[in-house]
């Protein structure tokens, strides 16, 4: 039931209670004390319900404002993540890609929307089982490590990268990839 429907029903119930009170004052067959007490109890209950409805609506409004604020923050950080010049990924402990920035998409030669959901291990050329053991251990135990990997992007020649991998508290892995050619150029400058 929506908040507006509940509010309308509450207002209708309060009006009906007021109408009953008016009719009771006119009808001589109603025992005034019993009826008065029942109406008083009903009105008190309706007032409590109205107060609870107002408090609930205030909480809903605060939650909506907080949700909008969180979405704006997420969008801001996504834009920042997406324009980083280095390939960055977020993966699960099994190497399933959760997020990838534009540079990662370029590195793997796969559209961002198709990269998400793939497992990073399919791009690893050598010793996939060892690779998976390393990252599963890292996701479980936490910490960070540097891995030298040979990756094969889609429809491109393999390339060597240094991957800096860090585990979050929720077992998500953050990846920062540096192709070797890129590191050598940076060191020369």
Number of DSSP E strands: 5
Helix content: 55-70%
Mean pLDDT: 86
CATH superfamily of the largest domain: PAS domain
Report the sheet with the most strands, covering strand number, pairing sense and barrel closure.
5 strands, antiparallel
Q: Report the β-strand fraction as a percent range.
A: 15-25%
Q: What is the CATH class designation of the largest domain?
A: Alpha Beta
Q: Spatial order of the strands in the main sheet?
A: 2-1-5-4-3
Which regions contain 5 or more consecutive residues with pLDDT less than 50? 182-189
Please tell me the CATH architecture of the largest domain by its name. 2-Layer Sandwich
Question: What's the number of domains?
Answer: 2
The helix/strand class is alpha+beta
Number of helices: 6
Mass-distribution shape: rod-shaped
The helix/strand order is: HHEEHHHEEEH
Question: What would you note in describing this structure?
Answer:
The chain is of the alpha+beta class and 189 residues long. It has 2 domains: 3-80; 85-188, PAS domain (Beta-Lactamase, 2-Layer Sandwich). It has 6 helices and 5 strands; from the N terminus they run ααββαααβββα. It has helices spanning 3-26, 32-83, 102-108, 112-115, 128-141, 180-188; strands at residues 88-91, 97-100, 144-151, 159-167, 173-179. It has a 5-stranded antiparallel sheet. A hairpin with a 7-residue loop joins strand 3 and strand 4 (159-167). The longest helix is centred in the first third of the chain and has 52 residues, at 32-83. The radius of gyration is 31 Å and the shape is rod-shaped.
């Amino acid at each position: 039931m929506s908040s507006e429907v509940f509010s309308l029903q509450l207002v209708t119930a309060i009006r009906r209670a007021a109408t009953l009170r008016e009719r009771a004052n006119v009808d001589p067959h109603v025992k005034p004390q019993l009826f008065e007490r029942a109406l008083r109890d009903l009105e008190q209950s309706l007032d409590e319900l109205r107060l609870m409805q107002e408090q609930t609506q205030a909480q809903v409004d605060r939650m909506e404002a907080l949700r909008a604020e969180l979405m704006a923050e997420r969008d801001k950080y996504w834009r920042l993540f997406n324009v980083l010049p280095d390939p960055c990924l977020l993966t699960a402990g099994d190497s399933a890609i959760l997020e990838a920035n534009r540079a990662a998409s370029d590195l793997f030669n796969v559209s961002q929307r198709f990269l998400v959901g793939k497992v990073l291990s399919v791009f690893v050329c050598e010793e996939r089982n060892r690779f998976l053991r390393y990252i599963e251990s890292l996701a479980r135990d936490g910490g960070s490590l540097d891995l030298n990997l040979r990756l094969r992007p889609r429809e491109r020649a393999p390339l060597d990268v240094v991957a800096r991998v860090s585990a979050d508290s929720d077992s998500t892995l953050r990846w920062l990839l540096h192709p070797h050619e890129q590191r050598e150029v940076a060191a020369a400058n």
